[in-house]
Write a structure and sequence with these properties.
Layout: H1 2-26, H2 28-37, H3 44-52, H4 57-65, E1 69-71, H5 74-80, E2 91-94, E3 99-103, H6 113-129, H7 132-148, H8 153-165, H9 170-181, H10 187-193, H11 200-261, H12 265-316
Parallel strand pairs: 1-3
Antiparallel strand pairs: 2-3
Helix pairs in contact: 6-9, 6-11, 7-9, 8-9, 11-12
């Protein structure tokens, strides 16, 4: 009996020894997350981002597993998110759930950048954890939307850039981009993203608000440039017309002087009225030209002020370490 018991005990121990690595492999993500979160308390600014983005419990878990950091300086940010060919990057996710880093944009006009970046990066960490079945399903939804229903030119340009710079991660990038930047998605995608956000529209609103600060200024500069071009053409035309009028006035003045000097007073007097009308028309044209020139100069000042404001916003999100050459 004792021999049988010993055999049974050895068998149980062998099974336990085999079961432990199998269980660890099966629960490797849970074990990894437990280690990462053990003793970790997310900073208040990180908790605030998660709440503002309406992260679900699972999304918060994935966010905190990555020990996200909000970094104030470009130098500190770029230590974690290395520069890629002088491109502007506002956040990065380190594969293997090794970290999420977000650049803390300081300009209050661009409120919402950090929130959108946080949501974008945590979706990368979520995509990395999808099962093969779930990933194939989601990839199909993303590709179908991209091919048939995506009409936002700015997002289309983003995807094309990813196709050039990150050809192996296009689906991953679309997964993050569509979820944070597209207001209306097909119902299957909306239901999918509901796993991760209780109010995805709040994230899209953040994105639309800060993008609107750029777009409104860009549109105003474009409109001002068009108006300046039209005004410049009008001013050039007025100057040409006034030069022709002035030449005619000088000719008519010489004729009047000749009539007066030759004592042809009757002819002189009959021509004076017409000449004075020409002078009045010319002076009115000069005044109009001066007004248009003043309007042009004022518009240039306003246009340049807006362009400078736009440049300041660009600078606020410029995380490049290298100086860029103007085109």
């Amino acid at each position: 009996m004792l021999t049988n018991f010993n055999r049974l005990l050895k068998l149980v121990l062998c099974l336990l020894i085999l079961a432990v690595p199998i269980f660890a492999l099966w629960q490797r993500n849970a074990l990894y997350d437990w280690v990462r979160l053990r003793g970790y308390t997310p900073p208040a600014n990180i908790v605030s981002l998660a709440n503002q983005d309406t992260f679900s419990a699972y999304t918060k878990h994935m966010f905190y597993v990555n020990h996200p950091e909000l970094l104030n300086s470009v130098q500190a940010f770029r230590q974690h998110c290395p520069e890629n060919e002088g491109t502007i990057v506002l956040g990065c996710y380190h594969s293997g759930q090794q970290g999420i880093y977000i650049y803390n944009v300081q300009d209050p006009t661009l409120a919402g950048v950090q929130q959108v970046t946080a949501a974008h990066e945590v979706l990368h960490s979520i995509y990395a954890r999808l099962s093969t079945k779930d990933r194939d399903y989601v990839d199909g939804l993303l590709e179908d939307y991209y091919q048939n229903d995506l009409h936002d030119s700015r997002v289309q340009a983003e995807v094309k850039l990813y196709q050039q710079t990150e050809p192996n991660d296009v689906m991953d990038e679309m997964h993050s981009t569509f979820g944070t930047e597209i207001a209306s998605l097909p119902l299957p995608l909306e239901k999918y993203y509901q796993r991760y956000f209780s109010n995805r529209q709040s994230i899209v609103a953040f994105e639309q608000n800060y993008q609107g600060e750029f777009t409104s200024r860009e549109n105003q500069v474009t409109a001002d440039d068009a108006q300046l071009t039209a005004l410049k053409q009008q001013i050039d035309s007025q100057e040409q017309s006034l030069n022709q009028q002035l030449a005619q006035l000088n000719s008519d003045r010489a004729r009047l002087d000749s009539l007066r000097n030759s004592n042809q007073i009757g002819a002189y007097n009959s021509a004076v009225g017409s000449f004075n009308s020409e002078v009045s028309s010319y002076n009115a044209g000069v005044d109009q030209l001066k007004g248009n020139i003043a309007n042009y100069n004022d518009l240039v000042d306003n246009r340049n002020a807006i362009a400078q404001d736009l440049a300041s916003l660009d600078q606020a999100i410029d995380t490049r370490l290298t100086t860029q050459t103007a085109q």
